[in-house]
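Fold it.
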Amino acid sequence: MLAEANTMRPERARPADTLVSIEGLKMHFPVYKGVLRRKVGAVQAVDGLSFDIMRGETLGLVGESGCGKSTTGRAILGLYRPTAGKVHFGGEDVAAIEGERLRRLRPKMQMIFQDPQASLNPRMTVGSIVAEPLVEHQVAKAGERRARVRELLDQVGLNPDYVNRYPHEFSGGQRQRIGIARALALDPDFIVCDEPIAALDVSIQAQVVNLLQDLQHRLGLTYLFISHDLSMVRHIADRVAVMYLGKMVELADVDALFSKPKHPYTRALLSAVPVPDPKIEADRRRILLKGDLPDAANPPKGCRFCTRCPEAVAQCFDVEPEWRDLEGGRKVACHLAN
């Protein structure tokens, strides 16, 4: 017992306006091989994330495909049982509770999924889809639920008379609005937006993002906005977190991160974002990363980015960089950042 007590660390003090606080979050998926299905390793999809999401803000989460963004969102909501770490929300540790305690917390934490075609049941009408959370959590009576569904459809810019139509009768943008209405049904405080515009036409993406911003201002929502579209993240986010191979490498206010990125990986990502000015675009230097993303089941020793980093030194290959504070509330995990 004494040895166990010595390994425990005191919890970090959280500001009063912190809505979600993540500490040491890990999500490892076991790898099995052979006839006997022996465990031979684990995919370290998320490996030790610590950050806060402030009430009323939009935190953008960006990175390459496969870096663990969506897994992070699902683990925060309790859709995945984390391997380790804590997720504080509403006075509870979402990573440690289950059953009825988790069920009572669910209405305040919702998700908007990437593909509206796959996330909406094709056999259910729009009214039934939007009303499903209300029925599941036994909110209001049937007549009140019908009125609430019509109100929600109107909030997201759809005709309330569409309640008896089916998902296939709508465009991609309209289907995503139905998904947003479903997420709003239980009056949540926090919504994970898992690449909500990735499956939509470019002409529709701005409409959906503007809708999310309008709903945030009217309803006081807090978003974790997961995306690989840095231009859209710059438009909607208050702060931006950058992930690489299961680790968070930088976190900063959106203006600070885009104007003066500290981590080499962040600089490489931003160098690939087109600039709507031919003169600037012609002279801009792009940072081309060599090699492929390493295997998350066997990540590099030291810094996860060392095998592709154009600025790596000997220390980067041996010592994992500390997740540390810089000026202006910025955080970074890089030996060379100052």
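The CA atoms of residues 275 and 285 lie 12 Å apart.
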